[in-house]
Amino acid sequence: MITAGTREMFLSNAVRMLHRLRDADVPVELLVYEAMPHSGFFGIPDDARVAQDIQKFAQHCWSQTDASAPLSPQ
What is the C-alpha to C-alpha distance for residues 68 and 30, in angstroms, rounded to an integer? Predict the structure, then answer.
């Protein structure tokens, strides 16, 4: 998951990263938040939305994982 904001100094890089990861068949999502600067909102209510979206994406990815597979090479 890649997060960026409309005021993100690296927004173009985030879009390029999204395309490279998709080209490599990596599950990825780009979420762009209105007026968010590079390092987040610094505690304003919008941060709760970002955290919620991150949690939702992580839960989705974890639910797609084979629970019997080791997380790291043995």
Answer: 29
